[in-house]
Amino acid sequence: MEALDELQALIKKLPGMGEKSAQRLSYHLIKTDESYNKALGNAIATIKEKIHPCPICGCYTEHDICSYCSDTDRDRSLLCIVEEPQDVLSIASAGAYNGLFHVLGGAINPLGGIGPDSLSFPELMKRIEEGSFKEIIIATNPTEEGDTTALYIKHLLKDRGISLSRLASGLPIGGDLGYADKLTLMRSLKGRIRL
Amino acid sequence: MEALDELQALIKKLPGMGEKSAQRLSYHLIKTDESYNKALGNAIATIKEKIHPCPICGCYTEHDICSYCSDTDRDRSLLCIVEEPQDVLSIASAGAYNGLFHVLGGAINPLGGIGPDSLSFPELMKRIEEGSFKEIIIATNPTEEGDTTALYIKHLLKDRGISLSRLASGLPIGGDLGYADKLTLMRSLKGRIRL
User: Which of A120, A132, B15, B186 has the greatest CB tally within 10 Å of its CB?
Assistant: First the structure.
């Protein structure tokens, strides 16, 4: 296979890439600076060697323990449970949270063959038993799987005296009522806030 | 800089990539197969070493001369002039053209500082003088710059007895009159075809 076809075929395998976007990107790469191509190529080829999950929380890190778990300024009585490593970044960069994280590695989805056994619940329970968490925020996605997982966590942690909460669902800021789906509207009505 | 941040920053420099898509892709690359990452990384890092412009037509090739210029089955009396190397692929894959190509390397754009001197007109004239072209199809983009370039080529090639044409502009197939812009409608009216 020609080098250009091969590059296009490889780019096309990335999520969200179609025939045209793969073509556009590969032609772009022929025009870019050679040092940029080397840097990008090397970064892609070596990312899996450099990055591994934090043994405590499961988010990605280059170090023995991730920057959140090793940060002594963070509130160690507060835990936020998320589905995926990238969710940690989303919540951390929102700037309103200063506690620790726990990555489940997905959400419970019986139809997709993902039961609680496939997720990091044993590690979670161990952390809760050994730690001193007073509040746990469940930040799984507002989907059926995320809701199921939240209920499962609620069940796991009952009678432990830990305050449990779930991220609010509702209309996105800057959104438009006319474009909101029924489920989102229903949730935003159910979770309405008294003024 | 951490490896993951570096990868994201590099991906973000690609055209059409924002903060979120760069993040999504880099997290995807942590989950993919290592051999895929090595293959993609290597393909990106080495593409500029492997590919160069064809010395005759200017489209990209791995060989001394590109597959179009070296294909003896193609009609050597027919030339299609395009702006960019990727346009060759678009026209070739449409399947309705079996002649040769010439890549200008862009379009005349005085405001953008691109005059005829920046484009491969000397090479084009040399090919026309040495070749036996009977028909030339100008396939520059249907933009102001593409139109200017087409007019310039028309001026260059007048009184040479070569039949000149330009790709038709009009409504895209499957399009909707209601969504067509005024200029496209104007062009499709001007270029209307008698039934």
Answer: A120
Q: What is the pLDDT of residue A180?
A: 81
Domains along chain A with CATH numbers = 13-50 (no CATH), 60-166 (3.40.1360.10)
Q: What is the pTM of this model?
A: 0.78
ipTM score above 0.90: no
Higher pLDDT, A141 or B182: A141
Nearest residue to A47 (alpha-carbon basis) of B1, B27, B136: B27
Q: Which of B26, B44, B60 is nearest residue A37 as measured by Cβ atoms?
A: B44
The answer to whether residues B91 and B68 touch, using CB atoms and an 8 Å cutoff, is: no
DSSP letters along B2-59, please?
A: -HHHHHHHHHHTSTT--HHHHHHHHHHHHHS-HHHHHHHHHHHHHHHHH-EE-TTT--
A-proximal residues of B, 33-52, CB under 8 Å: 34, 36-48, 50-51
Judge whether residue B195 has pLDDT over 80. no
